[in-house]
Design a protein that fits this description.
Length: 336
């Protein structure tokens, strides 16, 4: 096994939450071997591991819960496309957790692996984060739905949190894309087109990370899915609706940003055409004037107009009338 990706933590952290409707235990484990008891207990066991770069921990985790080696290779590859794995004793999900970076400008991703077994749930994250803190708070509340349901409901709650975060990011970038429309007709600068291309890149990144989740939900809603109880299928259907909403919004904003690029380039072309039209009109006016000036700039000795007293005045009157006449003609043709 090889870890592919950036190591985001110096040392992995293993957390365990065990609960039922009456009891709750939270602790941090010193060794991965301590999770062996989770296979024997009737409590819901949530094993959360921060940091997936330690191959010994991952290897031992696979031995304890009988994970497929090919699945474990995918789990260690942080560039892995989101997918659903139907194991013999577990269901597994590889997804992307998305968030804005520290500057709040670019969207970054972190690989999340969810494993649903008989009485346990395993989550593996690349680094510490507070995305699942609302779920933990619900578990700590004794009368909350999370405490009154089994581990498949916990997986639903975790998936729902991830998808809700998708929708938040899509709406956030969607508002920025909508704001760009007001600038297109008034601010055709290099900075604006760079901003549009930035949003286009972000939308494509969201599409790459979220679209496979739609296929994953289709697998979950099939009747042969064995680790989700019938009573929780309705929650999965609701989650599937959110995923469809997210993918539809991505396509909407993708089309919108493409239209904005087309409008931008069209406006730039129109502006260039206007400039070229003005230059062409002025060139058309000065061509006959230059012709006249060229004739009387010749050095032939016998040119009768050269000795006429008012030749210079007549020349300028002719030039002005010719230029003014052309301007009036262009205006009547609505070329100006």
């Amino acid at each position: 096994m090889i870890h592919i990706g950036e190591q985001k933590m110096e040392k992995p952290v293993i957390q365990l939450i065990e609960y039922d409707s009456e009891t709750l235990t939270e602790k941090e484990l010193d060794s991965i071997n301590e999770v062996i008891e989770c296979k024997e207990t009737d409590l819901v066991s949530w094993i959360n591991i921060y940091g997936i770069h330690d191959l010994e921990i991952i290897k031992r985790l696979g031995e304890i819960f009988e994970l497929n080696p090919l699945f474990m290779e995918d789990m260690l590859n942080t560039d892995q496309q989101p997918k659903y794995i139907d194991g013999e004793t577990y269901d597994a999900f590889i997804m992307k957790m998305l968030r804005y970076d520290k500057n709040g400008e670019d969207i970054t991703s972190e690989q999340l692996t969810l494993i649903l077994g008989a009485h346990y749930v395993i989550t593996l994250q690349e680094q510490r984060g507070d995305v699942f803190n609302p779920v933990r708070e619900r578990i700590r509340t004794r009368k909350a739905g999370a405490r009154l349901n089994d581990n498949d409901y916990l997986v639903y709650a975790l998936l729902d949190t991830v998808v809700d975060n998708y929708i938040f990011l899509i709406e956030s970038i969607g508002r920025k894309i909508e704001d760009v429309e007001d600038k297109i007709f008034h601010n055709q600068t290099r900075q604006l087109v760079e901003e549009i291309y930035h949003y286009k890149t972000e939308i494509n990144f969201l599409r790459k990370s979220i679209r496979p989740v739609k296929d994953m939900m289709n697998h979950l809603l099939k009747p042969e899915s064995t680790f989700f109880q019938e009573k929780n299928i309705e929650f999965l259907k609701d989650l599937n609706d959110l995923v469809i909403q997210a993918t539809d919004a991505i396509e909407l904003y993708s089309n919108m940003i493409s239209d904005q690029l087309n409008i931008y380039h069209t406006n730039v072309s129109n502006k260039m055409n206007e400039v070229m039209k003005v230059l062409t009109i002025f060139a058309s006016i000065f061509i006959p004037l230059t012709f006249v000036a060229g004739i009387y700039g010749m050095n032939f000795e016998f040119m009768p107009e050269l000795k006429f007293r008012y030749s210079y005045l007549i020349f300028w009157i002719g030039i002005i009338l010719l230029g003014g006449g052309l301007l009036l003609y262009f205006k009547r043709k609505r070329w100006l």
